[in-house]
Amino acid sequence: MATQTRRENIEKLVNERGFASVAELAELFQVSDMTIRRDLDRLEGQTLLRRTFGGAAALISRKRTERSDDELSFSTKPEGKLVDRVDVLVASSVNARYDRLLVDRFSKKNIPVLSESLLLPGTGSFVGINNQIAGLELGRWIGSYAQDHWQGKAVVLDLSYQLSNTQTRSRSFFHGLQEVIPGAEQRLSLNAQSRYRTAYQLTRDALAVYEDINIIFAINDITALGALDACRDNQIDPGEILVLPFGLEGDSLKNALFEGEYCKAGLAMFPEIVGPVCVEAATQAYNQEPLPEQFETPFAVLTTESLPHWYIREKDGWAPRMDIICEQLELPIDILSCESIPRRKLPERIGFIVPFMEHEWYQSLTKYMTQYAGKLNIEVEVVDVDKDLANELDLRRREIARQAAMMVKPGEVLILDEGLLAVYLSQELLSQKDITVITNSIKVFNILKNNPEIILILTGGAFRRSTELLVGPNAEGALNELRADKFFLTVAGISFDFGLSHTNISEVAVKKAMIQSAREVYLLADHTTFEQEATIQVAPLSVVDFLITDDALPASTRLDLSEAGIQIFLAAI
Q: By three-state DSSP, how is residue 435 classified?
């Protein structure tokens, strides 16, 4: 068969079936594995299919994954805040500051919050597996494998994350391995930041420096995918190294496990179970029923041999054998008779905070939550954290600007600084009358010039195209000859040690001149600006008379600022 004809047939077969392995393609077309690999690499280069571990997958599967955010996530909607749209919230941990802010915001509205995977402070219950026991079991499995295949050699690269539950996974995995092989070594433990690219690069670097590593433990699916690709691209013999994923939730890792090259075992956390359990637990929380501290969901160590026992490979991917899963695993809540049992009052909408939308775990969990909730006529609003953070921060900044505008009185002379907060403040001031505004910001000038009842003074100076600001000696000189009642200042960083700081020296010089020209300094800053230090100091904190910020700034910080003589105004969020 001609090469081009073979490649056309391979493309057609893979895209019809969804996945095909190198071994079965080599047997079907009667060529070597190396020839098939070259064919697949060429077809991938032509964007006709996608290379996977030990084979290839149809592009339609990848497109479906890439669309999952649009199809499944409603994200934060413009018509209002998330806290005003949902009856109960299921939240996965993002970081300490975001978690605290989220829980505080919902508790003020008396909306119950249920945690997923890890108990968030201030919440009463969470849905997730026992990470300690699960990690031990996976560690024991690889220990037995290393004894049987590598004469007990076990040198580990641990790709972990900073959350307490993922740290528990890593520690327990290694303890389980040491139970079987006491001399096992952990060569490196690295924070892969729960990102594919980071895991990929860390794995390549580690394997280049430590050639004796033969076990890679990955605390979730995306980390495992990065490690698997790194092993493949380094052309390491699959018989010399294994990747052990703590997570087998999507088709990518199930395909890798099915092929049994770099992945021969992994821990399944069954999003098919966790999703419905989250909905049932959220319903209990909504009805203010007593909740256990943990709805402990099941797990199982799956191998290349046992994978078909739990899942069946279909044209569109791997489908769970729900009868076997529910029969052989212990479930914390009955999810099989949801449509037949008497119902309590049901929430209309459940919010679900997703920290990593690209993870197949969250894609699958979202899918099964949505499917199960749909049977009960409950809507699930999935919120991508990256989008929610941006929307939330933007809302807070607008409220800070609105609060600042309320402090402006007719007849006053103001100095407006640069940046997004200054732009928002100028928009709020647009309806004002009988005020004078001094600024070096072209953006601020262009907004306020539309109101003929506002007197505008542009400082002059050299034009910085990147920020649309006027800077330099002319701007500073103009400010030295002007006096204002209030200066609304913005900076890049605020700390007690370094004071107010910013990133560009020419902008800093203008800010200093503005401080000298004003009778009162109003600092506009959202909570993310604090405990940050930019390159150049603008001034000590003592120059600030008033601070306008949001309520996410910790109370302890607000107290310290008040003791320093700064009067604080909190924007109503």
A: strand
Under 8 Å CB-to-CB from 221, ≥6 apart: which residues?
Answer: 245, 247, 248, 249, 250, 252, 253, 359, 360, 361
The alpha carbon dihedral of 373, 378, 384, 389 has a sign of negative
Q: Do residues 65 and 72 lie in contact, with contact meaning Cβ atoms separated by under 8 Å?
A: no
Q: How far apart are CA 334 and CA 30, in angstroms?
A: 50
- Which helix (H) or strand (E) is 89 found in, with range? strand 88-92
DSSP element (H, E) containing 471: strand 469-471
Provide the token pair at 460. 């002059």
Alpha helices in 121-220 (DSSP H): 131-149, 164-180, 196-209
Segment 515-529, tens digit of pLDDT: 999 999 999 999 989
Q: Mind listing the pLDDT tens digit for each residue in 63-100?
A: 333 333 333 333 334 456 788 899 999 999 887 777 88
Q: Can you tell me whether residue 58 is helix, strand or coil?
A: coil
For residue 359, give the 3-state DSSP assignment: coil
Specify the higher pLDDT residue, 26 or 456: 456
CA 225 – CA 52 distance, rounded (Å): 10
Dist CA 302 CA 199 (whole Å): 22
Q: Are 90 and 112 in contact (CB under 8 A)?
A: no
What is the side-by-side order of every strand in the sheet holding 155-160?
185-191, 155-160, 215-218, 242-245
Question: What is the structure's pLDDT at 240?
Answer: 95
341 contacts 334 by C-beta, under 8 angstroms: yes
Instruction: Choose among 350, 424, 419, 358: nearest CA to 386.
Output: 358
- 487 with 518: CB under 8 angstroms? yes
Rounded Cα gap, residues 83 and 101, in angstroms: 12
Cα 508 → chain centroid: 33
pTM exceeding 0.90: no
CA–CA dist 50, 508 (Å, integer):
50
How far apart CA 278 and CA 272 sit, in angstroms, is 11
CA distance 274 to 117: 10
